User: What shape does this take?
Amino acid sequence: NVYEWLEGILEAMAKKHQLNSPTFLAKNLHLYPDFHGNRSPLADPSMVGMICGLTLASSMQDLALLYLATLQALVYGTRQIIEQLTASGHNITSVLMCGGLSNSSLFIHTHADALGVPVLIPEEQQSVLLGASMLAAAASGDYADLTAAAIAMAGEAQVYEPQKDMQRYHNQKYAVFKKMQRDQKEYKHIMSEI
Assistant: This one.
């Protein structure tokens, strides 16, 4: 499993540096992940990826660090979307995660810690199929509506709670993430004069 392999390297690095979590290893490596534009919440297709903190090193440890910085950047993108939803009147109290990266313990914990809400991982591995089944059950009239079908069919989930001691780190990294967005726009403005 590639996630376990990379995360094993990060765990060993954290232990070597006497850190209580691999999270802190990417303190000085920042990534902005919109390599194909931003859909939400900026809706700016001209946005591109950015990396700050690269060195000439090319070891497996450096690959693992880039993986970690990428995970964190993806989470900060989610955090920005949730902030926009909250500003629009929604109340997000937890996040349900499914799909390939939900197999990464580090990705799950990073979401919980950076978002400050519990992350739920459904026991049902085929969540997309289950969702389609819920739609069919509601459409067929077996349940009064989609909410009733979801409540009846959803099943159990494992809950990952946020670790409060990670909050300051993620707040700082998130500030860098948003500054990278602003800086990229400023670079475009500067170069538009040519």
About this structure: The radius of gyration is 19 Å. Residues 60-87 form the longest helix (28 residues). Strands lie at 30-32, 50-52, 95-96, 119-122, 157-160.
